[in-house]
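To close the section, here is one more complete example, presented without commentary so you can practise reading it yourself. The ligand is adenosine-5'-diphosphate.
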Amino acid sequence: MKRVVLKVGSHVLTENGGMANDRINALIELIAQIKSKGTEVILVSSGAVATGYTQLQLDRASVSNRQALAAIGQPFLLSMYQNFFSKHDILCSQVLLSADVFDSRKHTKHAKMAIDTLLENGVVPIINENDTVSIDELVFGDNDRLSAHVAYYFDAELLVLLSDIDAYYDKDPNKHGDAKAKKIVVNISDDELNATATPSDKFATGGIVTKLQAADFLMRHDREMFLASGFDLNDVKDFLIKGEHVGGTLFKS
Ligand code: ADP
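Output:
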């Protein structure tokens, strides 16, 4: 595979009011492994607000406080990534996008040129929505849809969503003990796409619906999406490194 986008949610990055260092370390190791196989990796990272909150406990109920927390958290997040990547002699970079960048062909083209240049030089672009000035993510959703656009417009074959859930189930597995994981999904119904968002805590704004919307967008554009756990990276490792689909859900058209 030439190019892959990995998206990681706030849940995976933080725990008990602090950064989840072991999980982040495992994620960076995985990225180093993927890169060593000759695949270019773009990382889309949420977590600026959650990271800001580990430093200053502002009330997250207000949008302006969440914007402030994003401004505080983003440099912490990046310096942490830099730290972990440097152990593998990998350079990383920060790319903050506003969602409307993809509304203009000219802006998309310029952003892609920058991304291509970073990747040609072995650098990992770490993309986040510019939360402090664009509040879409803070109000509407996680980076799921942004990462689908990133995968399509920056020409990756596959988007991998690393979530707090290890697959897409036939019903919410946190509410139904008998929910069954789907291995391959080739079609998403309108009902599934329009269901109410069900984020599982205060940092997660997307829930499963924005993941399905991301998958639907990519399937319509002849790309694939893989949903797997960000807590236990074995399924994504099997899929990307060994080429074996054991756990996780593959959305393909
Ligand atoms: P993240 O922050 O990791 O990106 P979210 O917490 O926003 O993810 O969304 C995943 C959550 O969606 C799961 O923890 C689960 O509670 C909920 N969910 C609802 N319906 C389903 C389903 N059919 N399959 C999987 N997860 C579901």
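Once you have examined the tokens, check your reading against these statements. The pocket of adenosine-5'-diphosphate is lined by residues 9-11, 142, 163-165, 168-169, 171-174, 198-200, 204, 206-208 (CB under 6 Å). Residues 157 and 223 are 6 Å apart (CA to CA).
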